[in-house]
Structure of Cationic amino acid transporter 4, vacuolar-like:
Amino acid sequence: MQSSGNVGGGRKCFWGFRSLIQRKQVDSVHVRSEGHHQLARKLSVTDLIAIGVGATIGAGVYVLVGTVAREHAGPALTISFLIAGIAAALSAFCYAELACRCPSAGSAYHYSYICVGEGVAWLVGWALILEYTIGGAAVARGITPNMALFFGGVDKLPAILAPHTIPVFGIVVDPCAAVLVLIVTFLLCTGIKESSLVQMIVTSVNVSVMLFIMIAGGYLGFKTGWVGYELPSGYFPFGINGMFAGSAVVFFSYIGFDSVTSTVEEVKNPQRDLPLGIGIALFICCILYMFVSFVITGLVPYYALDPDTPISSVFASYGLQWAVYIITTGAVTALFASLLGSLLAQPRILMAMARDGLLPSFFSDINKNTQVPVKSTVTTGIFAAVLAFFMDVSQLAGMVSVGTLFAFTTAAVSVLILRYVPPDEVPLSSSLQESIKSESLRFGPNIQETDSKILQNPSGSSENNSRYLQEIGEASLGYPLIQKSIPRENQNEQTRRKIAAWTITFLCIGVFIFAFAASAQGLSSILRFTVCGVCGALLLCCLIVLTCIDQDDGRHSFGHTGGFTCPFVPFLPAACILINTYLLIDLGAATWIRVSIWFAIGAVVYLFYGRSHSSLFNAVYVPSAYADEMYRSSSD
């Protein structure tokens, strides 16, 4: 049997490559009816904001303020946070449109499967698995030293929770981190509404602590005259370049808002609430970051900030030692909320991949009582707890960013594809194929023979499939299963789609080369400027072409319509692709070596399991409009 999926418009290509580019259909009524248990729709806008803010504001802000101000931005750290927030908003706009059009669990994995193809979707899902698992373990490890401050130090923790060193292996185990992961796992298994309530409480405490920093710090600043801004070096001690370098570092403090989209199937009104939840959460995070950084860099000179505990040390320098406990409370609640956000999103990624057959169906089971994917949640919690217990995953922190940045990039590419070349062919569900086959058995041997050939060899072109379906329709006479006529795209529309597809391809290639050259310090300046100049010209030409040609009319009816639409296309998605690709490449060779090993493991899993168990394996593709008629006739 050959894998198929005619996404090439009738072109014949090697079956292995075909499986990488086949795309699934946006979930619809006839797809949902195939037996998947549904998640509970209980989340409101308030819940989404709490999840988004909690997953985004980790303890990093309590450390990044000192490090970035000392080494990169100085007092201009506030502007660095603003620029990074605007850059994160580009991805948020793309996510908002995709979440409205494709409201199913899976986040960027789901969107890339619909718009790009199975191969890229698998890589995105595999990268997100790595991100959430390692991210959750790293966050759990960070909670222990912060909690220890309430006991008077790590040595004063109860023996059962204190870190211990295994002499033979030299491994420092952290029982407290593992216990916290298991507690959060149990909480997530109780139900989505209960989890979101806890997230809301914990996030409220964290936000209250940040408000305390802003108010108390502002009072001290006005009382003492904001000494941090009265420096001979001025507001930009490291120049404009330093400010932008600081933006690149603090950008990662905005990672986490995409966790909101993983709960799309649990939102009461996703088309209205998801864009609001994503936008408001990101806006709150940006405002809090900017005001906290403004206050802290104004209270003391930037070079006097402690790189490890900047906020606590600033208040201590003003004689407010008691404020350390309040700030530590904020750090602990921020870490706990971030841990909950990671372990909330991960099971839903596994569930979405299992639904599509790329992972065992074990992960797609939804508990009938709590209406959450308990098996996926428990599996995620156990793996994260083991990592947090045995491993110091701080050295793997860079790998966490790969999943998010890769997801941000594919989301932006998906928006361009959706607008200019939305999928115009969809796979027939297995139930409808069986319905067609059984219907054709009622007629002559010619139809049966044609039916057998198509269903056993679906790698033929959509034109052949359409002829086959027409034959069945003609044989059905008075009660045709499908309509006989197939609307044909005119030649101009096909030409426009080809131009748009190649332009998007060249845009992505140009962005990659431009980002690689810009971040390659080993290249000579002349070569770097030359390559960047050529690629910049290519990007400009691609944007001009996409601006001049019309967007596809099919975008108005693709997926679930009536929700949020991303503005400033193609410029906004192109800028999003450029920023995230540059940050991806800039993560360093060591990080990419580790990630490559993880991707190689994923490729083996896909080749030996995912590809052959995919729900699109041996799928038959037909034009979208024709498929609608088929489903309608079949239901009648």
Q: What stands out?
A: Residues 118-151 form the longest helix (34 residues). DSSP finds 23 helices and four strands in the chain. The domain at 40-391 is CATH 1.20.1740.10 (Amino acid/polyamine transporter I).
